[in-house]
């Protein structure tokens, strides 16, 4: 959401193209990047989360029967 005075809230604050005042933005896609570290060579079932990054995106699908994430 961008407030009436132009203050960006949540995700809009990290994406400069979402800047229209008094506007809600709805994202239809999220890219998720997970970084982890395995604890030891002997115990493959244990890992620690190092970082998680979520990048919201929106795609304008030109054909509802063939949805792709390659559009604008």
Structural class assignment: mainly beta
Topology pattern, helix = H, strand = E: EE
- Structure summary, number of beta strands: 2
Total discrete domains? 1
Q: What integer is the average pLDDT?
A: 79
The percentage of residues in β strands lies in 25-35%
Number of helices: 0
**What is the general shape?**
flat
Name the strands of the widest sheet in spatial order: 1-2
How would you describe what is shown here?
With 72 residues, this protein is an all-beta fold. The chain has one domain (1-59). The protein has no helices and two strands. The protein has a two-stranded antiparallel sheet. A hairpin with an 8-residue loop joins strand 1 (29-38) and strand 2. The protein is flat and about 55 Å long. It starts with 28 loop residues before the first strand and ends in a 15-residue tail after the last strand. The model has no long low-confidence stretch (mean pLDDT 79).
Secondary-structure topology with pairs:
Elements: E1 29-38, E2 47-57
Antiparallel strand pairs: 1-2
Family: Belongs to the nonaspanin (TM9SF) (TC 9.A.2) family.
Pfam families: EMP70
Protein name: Transmembrane 9 superfamily protein member 2
In a few lines, what is going on in this structure?
This protein has no helices and two strands. It has 72 residues and is mainly beta.
């Amino acid at each position: 959401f961008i407030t009436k005075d132009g203050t960006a809230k949540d995700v809009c604050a990290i994406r400069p193209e979402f800047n229209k005042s008094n506007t809600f933005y709805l994202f239809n896609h999220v890219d998720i990047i997970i970084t982890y570290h395995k604890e030891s060579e002997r115990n493959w079932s244990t890992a620690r989360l190092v970082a998680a990054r979520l990048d919201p995106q929106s795609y304008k699908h030109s054909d509802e029967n063939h949805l792709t994430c390659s559009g604008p």
